Every structure is written in structure tokens, then in C-alpha cells.
Amino acid sequence: MMHNWNGRERSVLLAALLVTGMVTTAGMTFADNVVNNIDTTIDPDLETVTTTVGTPVSVGFYIRPTTGSGDAPGCNATGSNPAYLTISPPAGVSVSPTTLTFVGCDSPDTPVIEGLQTATFTASSAGTYNFTTGNFSMSGGKPGSQWNFANAQFTLIVTATDTTPPEITPNISGTLGNNGWYTSNVTVSWNVSDPESGIASTSGCDPTTINYDTTGVTLTCTATNGAGLSSSKSVTIKRDATAPTVTATPDRGPDHNGWYNHPLTITFTGEDATSGIAACDSPVTYSGPDGEDITVTGSCTDNAGNVGFGSYTFDYDATPPTVSIGGISDGQQFDFGDPLPEVTCNATDNLSGVESCTISPSPLPTSVGTHTITATAKDNAGNTKSTSITYTIKAWTIVGFKPPVDNPPLVNVVKNGSTVPLKFEVFKTISGEELTDPSIVKQLKAQKIDCSTLDGSPTDEIELTATGGTSLRYDWTEGQFIYNWKTPTQKDTCWKVTIEFQDGYSSIRAYFRLK
């Protein structure tokens, strides 16, 4: 919109711009005003634009030079020096385009805004969004151009859309008898309305006439309003018939995945609005054979002699699946530390199919000893079957101690403070493979004991001793482990030396009397 500035307004604006430094002295570039077209008054107050969530709204912008008009010295945007206004919206608002191009300015002397450029704003949620000077920036224009965005500011107020679904009211016409039953043809029509956004579409809302006997037909009218909100309304119409209706009801629902896996009992009940029920078949218990889509049918008779039938159809599987364990044999043996084979659970079921097949325990134990593996299969009817096998983890075979050390019951007699070479070999029991990594030793300890516990045990003096460090190592020349034990300097004491291995089971020991 246009605003014709009088002399006083021009003076006030010029004074304000001089105070803010936006207008310079003669011969320098003046700061042009970027203005929105929301109202006809050019002022720094925030104008207001209102829309709804998701509904675009357009705002126009133009440049009003501080002095002069058109391409006068006060207009900083020209065809050869276009100016580019970039709009950075607050979070939740999108703008298109984000940049507007200006090649001229508006003149206050013309009735139509010149150089007007329009941007479209869309909000994703309700709220108040203020576009202040910080949301605008300008580039380009004449060299040294300056810009004032106070008059471009505005407030975007976004309200929520229609939140109320359509109102639906059924109209039922017909002769109503007792207990909710109609005794004539029934016509159902619908009143559908939405005062806020109107009705956009309907489904199932056309008038319908029920001219047949039924224990209950449900009609549903669904309507969607202009805001995309939907609502439904349903009515159930019952029309009496001479023959009773019969319902077949099982004593429980399916046991698993829609299947029964043990006997079920089906009871027959009837309904008749006119003459009532005289008798129904006795309950039927089904216990086999297995099968799919098995149907059990029974009847009810009313006092007029009309017979109605009811059925229950179901799937029945009472046979468990077959199951076996693969990848390992019953009684199979393994050396400690060797990887166990991949064990599989194998199952088949000829009717409902296999739902799961699991191995327990998982992962398999790797400790020394005999362990049990159990495979459990479950079919889709919930029947289960298990089978088990065993396997054994063998401890390592220890050879030692080797000479010069004697093993129990002999007691080794050595000089205190001397070094005794403890030599031994370790083999996998089944494969016979020799182990050479010192890390197979879990613990090596020397424990002082009461010499009286060794009284009466045969002794053997060790004449050969070794010197050197006490670290455990594998001697590749001799093909054995060696640990040089530096005996304590404690005369007339007795010691038990024990080596324990990582298999958690194997160990060797020797007894020493220090002289």
C-alpha cells in the first residue's frame, strides 16, 4: 500500500536516521528503508499477519529511499546494482523464496508501490512468530549501501486448524417391536455436519433399507471434514426371522497361534426373537484326529419347529514335533581348550510347522567334565519335544615332575638356598598334542608345611641343582617346561610345591625337605 509522507513525517524520519547513523552527510550514500506492505503506514511497529498451521501467507517488501525517489542518489538498488534481501525465519516457519531481488525503489509520489517483491510464509505449528530486524539482511546494491529494516518487521500469528471431527447422527425409520427388534423394513439415513471446516467426503452414509431377517447388521457412516479429521458412527439393526440363529462356542480360545493342541468342547446356543428356543444339541468334545479347518456343526430348534445350524471351524494339532541334535555326537570327547563344534537343533512338524528349535545351555560349557546338551522343539500349535545328549571335556595330561625331582610319595631332600629345576610336560589327552605356551600354567606356588606330615615317607636327595632366574619357560631343546625354583634359606623346613593348570582340573606337586 502507498503512504504519502508529509513534510513533518519526512523530517522526523530523517532526524531518526541521522541519530542512528543511517544517513550520512551530503555526497555519501543514504540508508534506504526496507518496508513491508502489510498496512499503509510506514513505521517500525510490528504489523500482524494471521494464518493457520500449514496455510501459506504472502507478505510483500519494497525499498523506500531515505531521500529522492526512483534511481535518485538515495536509492541504493538499481538495475546495474541490484540489492538482495535475505529472510531468515524463526524455527517452525519456512519462507519461499528466501531471497528477494530489488532493482529499484518505490516513490512516495506514485499511487502504486513500485518494485514490490513477495515472499510466502508457512508455519508447521501454532504460535506467534516475530520477524524483527535480525531476521533480515541485505547484500548487493550500490557500493557503500546501507539499509534500515525497522519498517520490514512484522508478527506472524498462526492458529491451530479445525480440531473437531464431523458430527454424525443416524435416523432410523421403521416399526420397533420388543427387545430392540424391528418388525418391518428398516431404513437408516444419516445427518452429517461440520460447522467449522465443512464436510470433505463421506463413506457408507447413503440411505440403506434392511428388508431381510438378521440378528444384527451393523451400518457405519464415516465422514471427513475439510481439516482432515474423521469420525464414524455405527448402528446395528435386528430384524426377526422364523428360524433361530445358532452360535457354536468353544470352551476356550486356540491354545497357540490359532491352533488347538488338546481336546476342546463346543457348546451350541440359539436365539429366536419370536417363538424362543425349544432345544439345542448337546456339547461336542473334539479330541482328534489332527487337521486344518475342522468344522463341528450343531443345531437348535425353536418352538415352531424351525431348525437353525451353527458351526465352529478350527485347526487342531496335538502331535509334538520331532527333534534331534546335529553337529555333535552323543558321548563325544574333546580336549580342554579346543573349540567345540557348532551344534544345531533340527526339528520337523508335518502339520502346524516348527515355531522354534533351541539348544540349551547356550553357549555350551567348556569346562572339564561331562556336560548335557538339550534340544527343545516347539511347533506352531504349542506342542514341545526335547532330546538330550552328553559330551565330555578331557583335562590335560601332565608328565612330571621329571628328574631330578621325584614325585610323591618320595620326598626330595635339597640344600636350603639352592635352585631346583622343576621340569614337566603337558599334553592334550585325546589328540596327544604337546602344549608349549607358558600361559597354560594358572598358578605355581610353594607352601611351607609341617615336616611331621612327611615322617615315614621315603626320601631322595637331589644332587643336581640349577642356577639362574625363576621365570617359567618352555625349553625347546629339551622339549619340556622348566621353572628354576630358588629354595628358601630355611634349614630343616619342609615345602610343598604345586603347579595348577588353566584347564581348572590338572595339577602336579612335589615335597621337599631342606637341609
From TrEMBL:
Kindly give the Gene3D superfamilies that the UniProt entry links to this protein: Immunoglobulins
Q: Which domain of life does the UniProt lineage start with?
A: Archaea
The UniProt entry, under InterPro entries, shows: Ig-like_fold (IPR013783)
Name under which the protein is recorded? HYR domain-containing protein
